[in-house]
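Practice problem 4.
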């Protein structure tokens, strides 16, 4: 009788171990997927930051005030889309200022 009970108990424990191991493996897989997602997000963020830095470094001198203003933008809003939108606005402003600058230079030459 002892052997039968022990055998049944061992089989039950082994079955529970298999279930526990399956649960553990499932949790480990979930954790690995989470880690993988975080790493990919960091790589994407790093890549975006590198692109943004390259863009800012390649801007002409008349954009130096823009670059200073961009540095005060919160990091979570420093995206490529946000940079593009702000650069478009800045470019529009600079183009609007060009005729006034040209007129002032022309007037100065005649005086």
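Answer key:
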């Amino acid at each position: 009788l002892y052997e039968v009970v022990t055998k049944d108990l061992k089989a039950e424990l082994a079955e529970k171990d298999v279930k526990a191991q399956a649960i553990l493996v499932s949790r480990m897989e979930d954790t690995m997927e989470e880690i993988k997602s975080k790493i990919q997000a960091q790589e994407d963020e790093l890549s975006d930051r590198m692109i943004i830095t390259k863009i800012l470094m390649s801007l002409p001198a008349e954009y130096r005030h823009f670059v200073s203003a961009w540095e005060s933008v919160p990091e979570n809003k420093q995206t490529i889309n946000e940079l593009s939108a702000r650069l478009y606005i800045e470019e529009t402003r600079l183009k609007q200022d060009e005729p006034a600058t040209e007129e002032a230079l022309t007037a100065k030459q005649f005086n």
